Amino acid sequence: MPANINYAVAPGEHLEEWIESSATSLSTVASALGCTEIWVRALIRGAVPLTEPVAVRLEHLTGTPAYIWMRFEHGYQDDLSRLRIDRPTTENLTNANL
């Protein structure tokens, strides 16, 4: 019998692990994705969805195929729905609280 999983893992958490293991700066990631560091932090937190164009850019940056990044996002969305919780908001996002 499968265990009841009562959490959702944002795709950005996988990105955060990659950032840490590769010692890549947030500014480098933001530049590669064409966004701000605050947006990257929101992605890590799960507050913004990972889109296909971003997944392609992540593939170029990390070497992880875009379809894997999209699986992470779809799994996250499914888990949020199953758990009946909303995606975290971007309200009050700053460098200090992310």
Compact overview of the structure:
Helices cover 59% and strands 0% of the residues. By secondary structure, the chain is mostly helical.
Fold and architecture overview:
With 98 residues, the chain is mostly helical. It contains five helices and no strands. The chain has helices at residues 11-22, 26-33, 37-45, 52-62, 66-83. α1 (11-22) packs across α3 (37-45), α2 crosses α3 (37-45) and α4 (52-62) packs across α5 (66-83). The longest helix has 18 residues, at 66-83. The chain is globular and about 35 Å long.
> How big is the Rg?
14 Å
Could you list the spans in which at least 5 consecutive residues all have pLDDT below 50? Answer: none
Order of helices and strands: HHHHH
Measure the end-to-end span: 37 Å
The coarse overall form would be globular
Number of helical regions: 5
Q: Percent helix among the residues?
A: 55-70%
Label this structure with key terms.
98 residues, mainly alpha, globular
Draw up the topology in text.
Layout lengths: L10 H12 L3 H8 L3 H9 L6 H11 L3 H18 L15
Helix pairs in contact: 1-3, 2-3, 4-5
